[in-house]
Amino acid sequence: MDVHLVRLLKNNNAPPEDVIQEVRSLLKIPLQELSETDANIASLERQLRILEEKRKKTESLVEDYQIILSPIRRLPNDLLHEIFYHCLPTQRNSALVASDAPILLTRICSKWRSLALSSPRLWAQLHITFCDDYRTSPPPYTTLILDNDQELQLHASSVLKLRCEVVKEWLARSGSCPLSISL
Predict the structure, then answer these.
(1) What is the pLDDT of residues 58-68, one digit of tens each?
(2) What tens digit of pLDDT does each residue of 117-134 get?
């Protein structure tokens, strides 16, 4: 930038008309460069979005292939049975909850479900809880048709029936294995 223009930046005086014309002329090239640079940036951002989308698709494909090559898929069933057995709680018997093995193991994939259900040793321990929740909080819809005592009895009865069915199924899965049952 010329010295006479730099001086104009250091004060707030109005520039003479010839300087205004000179600055307008000088401004054309940088404005054109800004416009071209903005267009290049926009083009590169579009290319970047396209490449990022391509990368996501490629990552997804790689993940799918890696799932297929997962070492756990190649473990023999007898080894998986043993691993499953070591997933059982050690300080207590397994409870009737989805977050405990063996029930948890049946929720991973169809192969694991089949293996867990076919392994009687996994089902040879059982802890049966007697929770009081069903005595204090019946399903909300029953209040419309029953008085409080009736709805509590109905809810308690249905919970106990369901629990009995689950225990029967659990015990059937244990086959001829020695049982360990705690209450």
Answers:
(1) 999 999 999 99
(2) 999 999 999 988 876 554
Q: Which residues pair with 95 in a beta bridge?
A: 127
Residue 23 belongs to domain spanning: 3-68
The count of structural domains within the chain is 2
- Specify whether 100 is located in the same domain as 149: yes
Beta bridge partners of 24: none
Q: Name residues whose C-beta falls within 8 Å of residue 126's C-beta, 6 or more positions apart in sequence.
A: 93, 94, 96, 167, 170, 171, 179, 180, 181, 182
Which of 52, 68, 84 lies at the terminal end of a domain, its last residue? Answer: 68
pLDDT tens for 41-77 read 999 999 999 999 999 999 999 999 999 999 999 999 9
Please say whether the beta carbons of 156 and 134 come within 8 A. yes
Instruction: Write the CB contacts of 136 (distance below 8 Å, at least 6 apart in sequence).
Output: 152
Q: Are 143 and 152 in contact (CB under 8 A)?
A: no
Rounded CA-CA distance 98/105 in Å is 9
pTM metric for this prediction = 0.59
Q: What is the pLDDT of residue 161?
A: 85
What is the per-residue pLDDT across 152-175, written as a single tens digit (0 to 9) for each?
566 677 878 888 888 899 999 999
**Structural domain ending residue among the three candidates 11, 39, 68:** 68
98 in the same domain as 139:
yes
